[in-house]
Amino acid sequence: MSHESPQRQASDGAVQYCTFKVDHLLIGIEVWRVQEVIRHQPMTSVPLAPREVRGLINLRGQIVTAIDVRLWLGLDRLPAETPSMNAVIRLADEVVSLLVDEAGEVVEPALETYEPVPSTTPRQIRSLCSGTYKLEGSLLLVLDTESVSRITLDHAVAPQLAGTRRAS
Amino acid sequence: MNDDAMNEIVQEFLVETSENLDQLDQDLVALESDPHSRELLGSVFRTIHTVKGTTGFLGFTRLESLSHAAESLLSELRDGRLELTSARTDALLEVVDEIRALLTAIEHTGAEGDRDLAGLVATLERLQQPDEDAEAEAEPDAQVPGAVEQVAREAPAGVGPASRAEAPAPAAVTAPAVPAAPRVAAPRVAASEAPGAPVPASSVPASPVPASPVPASPVPASPVPASPVPAALPPDAPEPAPADGHRFASERSVRVDVDLLDSMMAQVGELVLARNQVSAHVDALDNQALHQTVQRLSMIVSELQEGVMKTRMQPVEQLWSKLPRVVRDLAALFAKSVSLEMEGGETELDRSLLEAVKDPLTHLVRNAIDHAIELPAERVAAGKPETGTLALRAYHEGGQVVLEVTDDGAGIDPGRIGAKALERDLVNQGQLDSMSEREIVDLIFRPGFSTASVVTNVSGRGVGMDVVRTNVERIGGTVDLTSTPGIGTTFRIKIPLTLAIIPALLVGCREQRYAIPQANLLEMVQLRTGGTHNDIERIGGALVYRLRGKLLPLVRLDETLGYAPLATDDGTDAVSIVVLQADGLLLGVVVDDVFGTEEIVVKPLGQHVKQVPLFAGATILGDGSVALILDVIGLASTAKVEEVAAGLGSTGADADEAGRAGERSTFVLLRVGRERRVAVPLKAVSRLEEAPVDAVEQAGRGRVMQYRGDLLPLVALASILPGIAGEEPEPEALGDPPTSVPVVVYSDGERQLGLVATEILDIVEGVFEVRAVGASPGILGSTVVHGHVTDVLDVHAAYELSTKETGRVA
Question: What is the pTM of this model?
Answer without folding.
Answer: 0.47
